[in-house]
Design goal:
311 residues; alpha/beta; two-stranded antiparallel ribbon; homodimer
C-alpha cells in the first residue's frame, strides 16, 4: 500500500515525472494577477488567489500526462494564512484530477509533535465528534536528522491512512555533501540515512517491491543515484534537480529498475515558466507547460523505455 | 544584533526560560472550548479559536516573568488554515506583550525555497507596492542537514530584519544519537553541526558575544551541553527537554557562562497543563501556569544566580 498508488499512476501515464508547484508570484502571468488583485486586493489574499488560479490551470493542462504534483510548502507559507489556504485548495484540486499529491514540507520533529505534523499533512484531526482533513497530501517529504523518534509517528499515520513519506537522503544542492558525504567508519552519512529508510520501510511494505518510505536523492549526483539504487532495493526515489539545477535524463537513468520503476523525477521552474522560455503569449502558459512536460517525459522515457508493475 | 533582543529580555526578567506553546486541544480547559465551539462550530475554526484564547490567557499570565514564547508550528498546522491563523495571532499577541517569539518550525530547504521559508517566518513579502508580514517570528528553528545552501538564505533575511535562527545540533529525544552521535574521524556529527553554527554565526555577530545563529541542544544530554558550551563560545543554546522529558535544572547548569547567559530553557507541557497536575479549578489554568513558571525560574536561577549583559 502507501506508495503503490503513486506507482500505479506512474505506470498508467507511462511517465515517471512529477510537476513541482513552487509558485513564485513572478511566475504568474500578469493577466491572472491583475484579475486576482482587482477582485481581492493587492495583498496576501490577492497574491494567494492568483497563485491558486495559476496552479489550477497548470493542473488542468498536465493531469492527463503527469501522475503527481509536488507543492512546495514554503511558497505557500510565504503568503501567510491566505497562502496556506491556496496550498489546501491546490492539493484538493490536484486530487480531484486524479494526481498523487506529494507535499514538499521537509517536516521534522519528535514524538507527539511529529504526530501533529503527520496528522496535519497526511491524516485527520478529531474535533469533538468530527474528523477533519487539515491538508490534503498523499505523501510528505521529511528530514530524518532526529532519528527514529521523528519517523515512527509518521509510519503510524501512513499505515492508518494509506500514505507515504520521502526522507531526505542525498539532496541535490551543491553543499549537500558538507554533512551528507561525511564518512562514518567508511560509510557516507547519506548511505546510512538511506539504510534507515530501508529499515523504516519494512513496516510499510508495498505490492510492487517499494515501501511507503521513499528517499529524496538529487539528480545532480548520478553516481550516488546508481549506488543507492543498488543498495536500497525497496526504497522509491523522489528525484529533484532535473532541468533548472543542471541534471539531464542521462543522470537519472540509474534510478530505474528492470520494470522502469524506482523513482519519480521532479521539475518545477522549467514547467511553470516554460512560457517565458518559449517566448509565447503569456495566455498560453499552460500550453507551454504541457509542451515542456511532454518534452521532459519523452527525454526520460528514452532511457526508461517502458514502465510495468511487477505481478 | 539578531539574538541581542532575546538576551536583553532574559536579563530584564532575570529568567532564562521560554514557554513552549504546543497547544493540544486536550490541554485547553472545557469552558474555553465550549465557548469557541458555540460561537464558531465544532470544527477546525472552533478548535483554532479555542487554542488562540488559551494561548492569549497564558501569555497574559506569563509575559511579566518569561522573556519569550516558542509556538510549535506542528500544533497549528494540525488545524489547517484556521490553525495557521491562530499561529499568526498568537505570535502577534506575544509580541504586543513584549515577548521574543521563537517559531519552532525546524524548517529546511535550499536556495530560493529556503529564502521563501525565511521570508515567511522572519521577513516581509512584497506584493506589488506593498510589503506584508506572513508570520511574526523573531527567530526560527531550522534543520541543517542540507548544509550551507540551506542556511545562507536565512542569514540574509536575519541581517535585513534583525532576526535569529536556532539550528538543530543535539536534540533531546532518545534516538537523537542514531545519526547525531555517529563519529566522523573521531568527531560526533552534533559537534560538526555545532561548529557550522559557529561559522555561520560569524555573519551575524552580537553585542554580547552570542551570534544570531543559535543551536538546539537537549537538556536530556548534560554532558553534551557542557562539551558544546566549551566548544561553541558564540552560539546561544535553545534547550528543550526540561520537565516533561525528564531533565532538571542541574542537567542544564553547564549551558550558562559566567554572566548567566548562554542558553534559554524551554518548558511546554508542564506549564500549559500545570492546572491538571495541581488539580485546581480549570478556570485557574493561567494561575497554575504562572506558579509552575515561577517554580521553574527559581529552580534554574538557583544554578544561574544572576544574569548580566557584558559591557
Amino acid at each position: 500500500m502507501s506508495m503503490d498508488l503513486l506507482l500505479k499512476n506512474i505506470c498508467k501515464k507511462q511517465n515517471p515525472t512529477v510537476v513541482g508547484l513552487d509558485p513564485k508570484l513572478d511566475y504568474v502571468p500578469e493577466y491572472i494577477k491583475e484579475k486576482a488583485f482587482n477582485k481581492y486586493g493587492e495583498n496576501l489574499k490577492g497574491a494567494a488567489k492568483a497563485i491558486l488560479e495559476f496552479n489550477k490551470c497548470l493542473i488542468d493542462s498536465l493531469y492527463e500526462i503527469i501522475p503527481a504534483v509536488k507543492p512546495q510548502a514554503a511558497y505557500y507559507e510565504m503568503y501567510g494564512t491566505a497562502g496556506m489556504k491556496t496550498l489546501y485548495k491546490t492539493q484538493e484540486y490536484a486530487k480531484s484530477r486524479g494526481m498523487y499529491v506529494i507535499t514538499d514540507g521537509k517536516r521534522n520533529d519528535i514524538g507527539a509533535t511529529m504526530e501533529a505534523y503527520a496528522t496535519a499533512h497526511l491524516g485527520k484531526v478529531k474535533v469533538r465528534d468530527g474528523e477533519y482533513t487539515p491538508f490534503m497530501g498523499d505523501s510528505l517529504t521529511v528530514n530524518g536528522y532526529l532519528g527514529t523518534d521523528g519517523i515512527k509517528p509518521l509510519i503510524n499515520v501512513c499505515k492508518e491512512y494509506d500514505k507515504s513519506i520521502f526522507v531526505l537522503v542525498k539532496t541535490s544542492n551543491p553543499s549537500s555533501g558538507e554533512l551528507q558525504d561525511l564518512k562514518v567508519d567508511g560509510t557516507p552519512i547519506y548511505e546510512l540515512m538511506g539504510k534507515m529508510c530501508e529499515k523504516w520501510g519494512e513496516e510499510l511494505p508495498g505490492a510492487y517491491g517499494y515501501s511507503g518510505v521513499g528517499a529524496v536523492v538529487g539528480a545532480t549526483y548520478p553516481e550516488q543515484i546508481a549506488e543507492l539504487r543498488a543498495k536500497l532495493p525497496h526504497t522509491f526515489f523522489l528525484i529533484p534537480g532535473y532541468g533548472a539545477q543542471g541534471a539531464g535524463a542521462k543522470d537519472i537513468a540509474a534510478a530505474f529498475d528492470e520494470n522502469g520503476l524506482g523513482g519519480i523525477v521532479n521539475s518545477s521552474r522549467a514547467i511553470m515558466t516554460a512560457y517565458k522560455k518559449e517566448g509565447c503569449d503569456e495566455c498560453d502558459f499552460a500550453g507551454a507547460a504541457f509542451r515542456e512536460a511532454m518534452r521532459m517525459r519523452d527525454e526520460i522515457m528514452s532511457y526508461v523505455k517502458q514502465i510495468k508493475l511487477p505481478q
